[in-house]
TrEMBL record, chain A:
It comes from Punica granatum (Pomegranate). Belongs to the peptidase T1A family. This is Proteasome subunit alpha type. The keyword Cytoplasm applies. It is found in: Cytoplasm; Nucleus. PANTHER family: PROTEASOME SUBUNIT ALPHA/BETA.
From TrEMBL, chain B:
It catalyses: Cleavage of peptide bonds with very broad specificity. The active site is at residue 73. The proteasome is a multicatalytic proteinase complex which is characterized by its ability to cleave peptides with Arg, Phe, Tyr, Leu, and Glu adjacent to the leaving group at neutral or slightly basic pH. The proteasome has an ATP-dependent proteolytic activity. SUPFAM superfamilies: N-terminal nucleophile aminohydrolases (Ntn hydrolases). GO terms for cellular component: cytoplasm; nucleus; proteasome core complex. The lineage of its organism: Eukaryota, Viridiplantae, Streptophyta, Embryophyta, Tracheophyta. Its main location: nucleus. This is proteasome endopeptidase complex. It comes from the Eukaryota. Coiled coil: none annotated. CDD domains: proteasome_beta_type_5.
Length: 249, 301
């Protein structure tokens, strides 16, 4: 079969896989991405670096569909992401073809994670330099799900998570402020989390909302601006309330 | 890891050549094949040794013609209000010879024509056997393995749709190579009772009533005229039993024991296994004719 010159991912004396850890570094340098799971809505948000004037922003969508009911956002090397996404999309259709059923979120996450793992245990290749956030609704039970994979090939389910640049701060914020939300509240929570590390404004954030009935919907810049304005107003009101305690009667 | 859904990948990768789905023949613990094969999409097909014949197609045609006794059997299955009823005879024939099996080791003197034609894939799915016995038995067991692996990997039972599709894909990839399988996959899954017909030509049909085998025309006659959706389990079992009996009566390649199984929401259960000879006298009991009676009177005191 394919010949290889040298295995690239090998163990270090103290049990580390350095290539995998370096891949995680690459992820840490990527754009921030956040995912929040509500009861009937799941939201993905990605930091958007300001697009060049001449660039067609529609061709650099960072949140993509894997199937009608599954979406993915990632942080890290975008070229690696493209390859992984294509393989995942083929697998979604292949599954539909062979068992006449859509994939579950867990299945496709397991597939993507398995693929990422394979490239940490093969000769002559390097690991994928990206972590993914995969959201979707279970086609049988309708339950919402959010999963994260990373370059080592591990995956787990989350209520809310962040990856990429400053993901620790976002995760801290989410841990402090997460509660079961639905509908617009979930969207707001995701945007608030992202705003912790991203400059405020609709043009710096890309948000996609998935619902059971309507699948994935990318929010327009204007819509995002409106929600950001709402959030700022709420923040201001909270500040004001703190500064001037309510008068007691 | 994940199931190998090689069909689409291999077709895409290799243009139009149909690759055999040999995943059924791989062991559960594949030997490490060397580190080069990370890309399923560009992997070559495992080699398959063909018989050393100068005219392979002719050879295959001959082999298939030998097996042609049009699947000597009668099997049937139908969906009704309470689930799926599955029934089959038990005669296995090799051309003109009828096979007999020692029924149970406990009674070595007693032989009966019993071949298990209803195969238990797992506790909630049954498969029926028509055609080559070895083919049916092997591929049903293989299907059982795949269903179990699916359950373990996905923490949920495979649907009857999925199971029948897996089998149909395997059989399709061996199309033209002499497999002879005419099977029905019956089960109860999350969508309720389900019944599929799958054959070695690669056909797969979803339906409510099927009968497969050389005795099927006779079985269809009884089944179609007596069928009602809202039968009770006993009524449906009796209908299935009678249909098998009538088929064994007229079809020489069917006979032995009429087995009847019921698949309900909690899985399958064998309801009965009656010798069709005895069923005959049950349905058409012998009444002494008048001539015999006279003779009995004359022979009296």
């Amino acid at each position: 079969m394919a010949r290889y010159d040298r295995a690239i991912t090998v163990f270090s004396p103290d049990g580390h896989l350095f290539q995998v850890e370096y891949a995680l570094e690459a992820v840490r340098k990527g754009n921030a991405a956040v995912g929040v799971r509500g009861t009937d809505t799941i939201v993905l948000g990605v930091e958007k670096k300001s697009t060049a004037k001449l660039q067609d922003s529609r061709s650099v969508r960072k949140i993509v569909n894997l199937d009608q009911h599954i979406a993915l956002a990632c942080a890290g090397l975008k070229a690696d992401a493209r390859v992984l996404i294509n393989r995942a999309r083929i697998e979604c259709q292949s599954h539909r073809l062979t068992v006449e059923d859509p994939v579950t979120v867990e299945y496709i996450t397991r597939y993507i994670a398995g693929l990422q793992q394979k490239y940490t245990q093969s000769g002559g290749v390097r690991p994928f330099g990206l972590s993914t956030l995969i959201i979707g609704f279970d086609p049988y039970t309708g339950a919402p799900a959010l999963y994260q994979t990373d370059p080592s090939g591990t995956f787990s389910a989350w209520k809310a998570n962040a990856t990429g640049r400053n993901s620790n701060s976002i995760r801290e914020f989410l841990e402090k402020n997460y509660k079961e939300t639905s509908g617009q509240e979930t969207v707001k929570l995701a945007i608030r989390a992202l705003l912790e590390v991203v400059e405020s404004g609709g043009k710096n954030i890309e948000i996609a909302v998935m619902t059971r009935e309507q699948g994935l919907k990318q929010l327009e810049e204007a819509e995002i601006d409106a929600i950001v304005a709402e959030i700022e107003a709420e923040k201001a009101a909270a500040e004001a309330a703190k500064k001037a305690p309510p008068k007691e009667t | 890891m994940c199931g190998k859904h090689n069909l689409l990948l291999e077709t895409l990768a290799s243009g139009l050549t149909m690759k055999l789905d040999t995943s059924g023949l791989e062991s559960a613990y594949p030997v490490l094949r060397g580190v080069g094969d990370l890309d399923d999409a560009i992997q070559g097909a495992p080699a398959f040794e063909l018989p050393n014949a100068s005219d392979f197609d002719g050879f295959v045609k001959e082999a298939m013609a030998e097996l042609k006794p049009a699947k000597g059997t009668t099997t049937l299955a139908f969906i009704f209000k309470e689930g799926v009823m599955v029934a089959a005879d038990s005669r296995a024939s090799m051309g003109a010879y009828i096979c007999e099996w020692l029924h149970e080791l406990a009674n070595p003197a007693e032989t009966s024509q019993t071949v298990k034609k209803i195969i238990e894939i797992n506790p909630y799915m049954l498969g029926t056997m028509a055609g080559g016995a070895a083919d049916c038995q092997f591929w049903h067991r293989n299907l059982g393995i795949k269903c179990r692996l699916h359950e373990l990997a996905n923490k949920r039972r495979i649907s009857v749709t999925g199971a029948s599709k897996l089998l149909a894909n395997i059989l399709y990839s061996y199309r033209g190579m002499g497999l002879s399988v005419g099977t029905m996959i019956a089960g109860w899954d999350e969508t309720g009772p389900a019944l599929y017909y799958v054959d070695s030509e690669g056909g797969r049909l979803k339906g409510n009533r099927f009968s497969v085998g050389s005795g099927s025309p006779y079985a269809y006659g009884v089944l179609d005229s007596g069928y009602r959706y809202d039968m009770s389990v006993e009524e449906a079992a009796e209908l299935a039993r009678r249909a098998i009996y009538h088929a064994t009566y007229r079809d020489g390649a069917s006979g032995g024991v009429a087995s009847v199984y019921h698949v309900g929401p909690n899985g399958w259960k064998k309801l009965s296994g009656d010798d069709v000879g005895e069923l005959h006298y049950k349905y058409y009991p012998v009444t002494p004719s008048t001539v015999e009676q006279e003779m009995a009177e004359v022979a009296g005191p």
